[in-house]
Design goal:
This protein has an eight-stranded mixed β-sheet with strand order 14-13-10-8-9-16-17-26, with helices on both faces. It has 20 helices and 33 strands. The two termini are 43 Å apart. α5 packs across α9 (237-243) and α19 (613-620) runs parallel beside α20 (635-646). The chain is globular, with a radius of gyration of 24 Å. It is an alpha/beta fold and 650 residues long. The structure holds adenosine-5'-monophosphate-propyl ester. The site of adenosine-5'-monophosphate-propyl ester has 21 residues, from α11, β22, β27 and β28.
Length: 650
């Protein structure tokens, strides 16, 4: 491998290893073909990666922009593409999922077994009245059943709305109500850090708040924890599947049939239900999985550590890998149970060849030390992936040296819940890699860095990332809110998609992501909105006003820091901060709990009443505060800064 050493300003590039390049799935011709005829290129990918029950007549209909229709007239069944066709091609005995529970229990599920389970689950859901166009909420941890549940919905043409198991009953409730889900699929509980957890009580609490659309709750038995039971509503998953026929005839649906809704944080308090449809989404997730991870089903063992509750789990645990007929690892628990080498023991045990994870996990492993990966033989690894936030060059280098033995390509993949699939990433074996940069739009994708006025910027200048052409896996809207879809993504730079990220190109034209330019935080690769946490805080009876900022954090990328003003008559007590943190946990979920909360007398505001988060971020990151001349009362910041140093150690 040739490494071009350079000064600290010029990043080091790593040219593709000739041996790797010689056998790589992707070749430079992909870029050429896509550049010559973008829509023709997508048509080719659509026919290569997806089996259509009825071929499409038109690649893209953009006449209703920004509402796109891809592969117009085409019909497919997504679940058939992910399961049945591999069985029909004679690969029924290939392992689809190596499941590893946190306590160490395992299950090996072949494609033939997955086929039977998905058919049974589809029949069981149909028996509960679920049909094409309905919505099903899925509130499950990482289990085989989570994958089966999602595929069973897809098979029926029903949209799933997976809610991350770490979200609270309140957050689950608002998502169930917004999507008007007919059925909720959950489990008794799971395991986390060696202890049993519970999930069903959150579903019970969510439904107790009122969710008239829900007729049934399907309950997977995972850890045997006792559950309350509502007769007539609750049904055991295993009983329903046993009673169901193992054969389900799948129907083909239009390419634009809704496949799922996934809620994500935006700049306002209410999470957005991002809508994805079938054909285009499956084409792009399958195409990217194959080319970006350089996978061949007969050779690779793939492992994406993301939870199915996030978009990465949708696109790169369920749809992309299964459409490719891959063998993959699904792990239920945390990386440090029973010890900090758990992930590496799994890589060794299953001979994982492709690992896809988030920078925050890599930085945590760096902190734990090299001795944990060193306990295991990681020589099976061929490609390492990163997603969710910037991977700083230090973490990139550690990942490559310690996990990849200085040998494996690293693909840093930029994309979003809204984009549905990877958009900016190097192609292993083709692109010379550059630590810390997501580098180049994938073949078929068009991105630009523009200034405030929407003009493309020269190399070296920081601006906004926009996507200039529609792409197959693009969101088709925000569930129930057309206007918000237009305003959020298409109004800032008319005709182009505004990603909400800052970016710049370096002198080679490679793209570097610079973080969000809106009020969205990225904590451990999870998107959280400042507004959502602020509204959770002000919903507490003691709180009059709240301001939340994301402060840089060595491990989690950003951390939530909150400043609150208590209501008149409420004094700060010894438990105030703990109570407020718990309140946020209850309203949204433990992931949203602020790292620190500071009770203040005033918040810094401009004369027009806008909170100056920039100054609060300075305080949260222990920097001298910037320009305060536009504040109504400039002494406010002195008080906050003093208060922060007094309570430091956040
Ligand atoms: O800010 C970008 C960051 O994560 C945001 C999207 O978050 P979410 O919808 O939760 O999806 C995360 C998994 C795809 C983006 O707007 N982001 C994602 N990947 C990267 C990234 N930032 C820098 N580099 C990346 N590779």
């Amino acid at each position: 491998m040739t490494t071009q050493e350079s000064s600290s300003e010029t990043p080091v590039t790593v040219a593709p290893d000739p041996a790797f390049a010689a056998q790589a799935v992707a070749g430079p011709d992909l870029y050429e073909r896509a550049a010559a005829d973008r829509l023709g290129f997508w048509a080719e990918q659509a026919r290569e990666h997806v089996t259509w029950a009825k071929d499409f007549e038109e690649v893209l209909d953009w006449s209703g922009a920004p509402f796109a229709k891809w592969f117009v007239g085409g019909e497919l069944n997504v679940a058939v593409n992910c399961v049945d066709r591999h069985v029909e091609a004679g690969h029924g005995e290939r392992v689809a999922l190596h499941f590893e529970g946190e306590p160490g229990d395992t299950a090996t599920v072949t494609y033939a077994q997955l086929h039977e389970q998905v058919q049974r689950a589809a029949n069981a859901l149909a028996a509960l009245g679920v049909g094409a166009g309905d919505r099903v909420a899925v509130y499950l941890p990482m289990l085989v059943e989570s994958v089966v549940a999602m595929l069973a919905c897809a098979r029926l043409g029903a949209a799933h709305s997976v809610v991350f198991g770490g979200f609270s009953a309140d957050a689950l409730h608002s998502r169930i109500v917004d999507a008007e889900a007919k059925v909720v699929i959950t489990c008794d509980g799971s395991y986390r850090r060696g202890k049993p957890t519970t999930l069903k009580p959150a579903v019970d609490a969510a439904l107790a708040k009122g969710a008239p659309s829900v007729t049934n709750v399907l309950v997977v038995r995972r850890n045997g924890e006792a559950v309350d039971w509502t007769e007539g509503r609750d049904v055991w998953w295993h009983e329903a599947l046993e009673a169901a026929s193992p054969v389900h005839e799948a129907q083909a649906f239009d390419a634009e049939q809704p496949l799922f809704i996934l809620y994500t944080s935006g700049t306002t308090g209410k999470p957005k239900g991002i809508l994805h449809t079938s054909g285009g989404y499956l084409v792009q997730t399958a195409y990217t999985t194959r080319n970006v991870f350089d996978v061949r089903p007969e050779r690779d063992v793939y492992w994406c550590t993301a939870d199915v509750g996030w978009v990465t789990g949708h696109s790169y645990v369920v749809y992309g890998p299964l459409a490719n007929g891959l063998t993959q690892v699904v792990y239920e628990g945390t990386p440090d149970t029973p010890d900090k080498d758990r992930w590496w023991s799994l890589v060794e045990k299953y001979g994982v060849t492709v690992l896809y994870t988030a920078p925050t996990a890599i930085r945590t492993c760096m902190k734990w030390g090299e001795e944990f990966p060193a306990r295991h033989d990681l020589s099976s690894l061929r490609v390492l992936g990163s997603v969710g936030e910037n991977i700083n060059p230090e973490a990139w280098n550690w990942y490559r040296r310690v996990i990849g033995a200085g040998r494996t390509p690293i693909v840093d993949t930029w994309w979003q819940t809204e984009t549905g699939a990877q958009m900016i990433a190097p192609l292993p074996g083709v692109t010379a890699l550059k630590a810390g940069s997501a580098q180049v739009p994938l073949p078929g994708i068009a991105a630009e860095v523009v200034d405030d006025a929407g003009e493309p910027l020269g190399h070296g200048q920081a601006g906004y990332l926009v996507l200039t052409e529609p792409w197959p896996a693009m969101l088709r809207g925000i569930w129930g809110d057309e206007q918000r879809f237009k305003d959020t993504y298409w109004a800032r730079f008319p005709g182009r998609y505004f990603a909400g990220d800052g970016a710049k190109r370096d002198e080679d034209g490679d793209i570097w992501l610079l973080g969000r330019v809106d009020d969205v935080m990225n904590v451990s690769g999870h998107r959280l909105s400042t507004a959502e946490i602020e509204s959770a805080l002000v919903s507490h009876p003691d709180v009059a006003e709240a301001a939340v900022v994301g402060a840089t954090d060595e491990t989690t990328g950003q951390a939530v820091v909150a400043f609150v003003i208590l209501r008149g008559g409420h004094e700060q007590g010894p438990d105030t901060v703990a109570q407020l943190r718990d309140h946020v946990g209850k309203e949204i979920g433990p992931i949203a709990k602020p790292r620190s909360i500071m009770v203040v007398a005033e918040l810094p505001k401009t004369r027009s009443g806008k909170i100056m988060r920039r100054l609060l971020r300075d305080v949260a990151e222990h920097r001298p505060t910037g320009d305060v001349t536009t504040l109504t009362d400039s002494t406010v910041m002195d008080a906050i800064t003093q208060g922060m140093s007094a309570t430091s150690g956040d």
